[in-house]
Each structure stands twice: as C-alpha cells, then as structure tokens.
C-alpha cells in the first residue's frame, strides 16, 4: 500500500522504539526534581511525543504548538507561521521542546527565541532526527535520536504533502513521488 512509495527503510520500528526507551530514561533523570512543560511541535512530533512521554517516569505537563514552514514543499519557505499557540505560559518554566526533525533549524530557532522572550527558566530540545547537512541557522538539540542523511525522509510523523505520517518507520521516498 503506502509502503510502495518508499525507496528505502532508514530506521525500523524496532530501532525507533529502542531509541525512545533510551531517550525516556535520560529525560527521566534530567527532569527528576522538576515539573517540565513538554511542548510538542505539531504535527510532525505527534507519534514520537506520544511514545516518548510514556517512557518519562517523572511529573510532566504537556502542551502543543502548531507551526508550519514547509507547506507542500520539500524545502523550507524560511517563514515560520504560528498556526496554534500554547495554552500555557512558559514564564519561569523548564521547557522541553519535542520535535521530529531539525533540518534547516529555522523552526526551532524561532521557537527557542520566542520562549526566551516569554521568559522560560530553561529550554531544552529533544529531536528524534537531525539532518545536519540541511542547517541554515546555528542550532543544536540537547538530545538527538538519530542523524539522517541529506534526503527527504517520511514516516513516524514526518510528511510529504501531508501524507506518510502514519508509516510506523522512517523511510526515504522514491524520487518520482516528489519530482515531476
Ligand atoms: O528545521 P526546519 O527546516 O525548520 O524543519 C523542521 C520542521 O519542519 C517540519 O515541520 P512542518 O513545517 O513541515 O510542519 P508539520 O510538522 O506539520 O509537517 C518538521 O516537523 C519540523 O517542525
Ligand atoms: Mg511537514
């Protein structure tokens, strides 16, 4: 079915779940004495966030921010739009931003600056994937699941034109799907 559009599986379901466990254990230690505000960046972070929070064994509060800069393209427009803002104030809070991928870095750079301006006490980033070759601004995550090569990847939350978010693994799309 939708798997027929995938050229190659980069990260299997088992590898994803193993990494989520490992990151959950690390974050449990990091936030043991705190009550962080975990902010999921919609829509891409949803599957990762859903799995990760179940592996964090300390008190956490959840919120969501919906920002978008890709539309239906495979290259960032560079303009980050807030589609849905937080319900909670970040002032004085220990913020943990949960992302699916850092590519150009523009989305997270925008969010980090916004949360600094709103006076968060601390801001950390956990991202499932990092694509260092895509970077346009200087930005590093505190916790990274996997580095990915310079290819447009989909699955486990990541989309191409809003499709493929529901694949249970991370794959590379066949070229003919997005170049015509
Ligand atoms: O580092 P960057 O170049 O900014 O790219 C990363 C961002 O782009 C994607 O979101 P997108 O804007 O496509 O929204 P989505 O999560 O709803 O797909 C992805 O989920 C990250 O949030
Ligand atoms: Mg997208």
Structural summary, described in words:
There is one protein chain. A 6-stranded mixed beta sheet has the order 4-3-2-5-6-7, sandwiched between helices. The protein has a 3-stranded antiparallel beta sheet with strand order 1-9-8. The protein has helices at about 15-30, 45-55, 105-115, 175-180, and strands at about 5-10, 35-40, 60-70, 80-85, 95-100, 120-130, 145, 155, 170-175. It has a single domain, classed as 3-Layer(aba) Sandwich (Rossmann fold). It has 4 helices and 9 strands. About 30% of the residues are buried. The chain has about 180 residues and is an alpha/beta fold. The longest helix has 18 residues, at about 15-30. 1-O-pyrophosphono-5-O-phosphono-alpha-D-ribofuranose binds near residues 76 and 106. Belongs to the purine/pyrimidine phosphoribosyltransferase family.
List keywords for this structure.
180 residues, Rossmann fold, six-stranded mixed beta sheet, three-stranded antiparallel beta sheet, 23% helix, 29% strand, binds 1-O-pyrophosphono-5-O-phosphono-alpha-D-ribofuranose, binds magnesium ion
């Amino acid at each position: 079915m939708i798997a027929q559009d995938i050229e190659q599986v980069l990260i299997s379901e088992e590898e994803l779940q193993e990494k989520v466990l490992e990151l959950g254990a690390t974050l449990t230690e990091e936030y043991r004495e705190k009550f962080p505000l975990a902010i999921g960046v919609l829509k891409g972070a949803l599957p990762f966030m859903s799995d990760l929070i179940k592996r964090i064994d300390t008190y956490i509060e959840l919120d969501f921010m919906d920002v978008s800069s890709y539309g239906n393209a495979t290259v960032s427009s560079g303009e980050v739009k807030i589609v849905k803002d937080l319900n909670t104030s970040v002032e004085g809070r220990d913020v943990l931003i949960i992302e699916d991928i850092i590519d150009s870095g523009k989305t997270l750079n925008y969010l980090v600056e916004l949360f600094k301006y709103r006076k968060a006490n601390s801001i950390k980033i956990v991202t499932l994937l990092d694509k260092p070759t895509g970077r346009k601004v200087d930005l590093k995550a505190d916790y990274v699941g996997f580095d990915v090569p310079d290819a447009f990847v989909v699955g486990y939350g990541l989309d191409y034109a809003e499709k493929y978010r529901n694949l249970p693994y991370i794959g590379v799309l066949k070229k003919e799907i997005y170049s015509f």
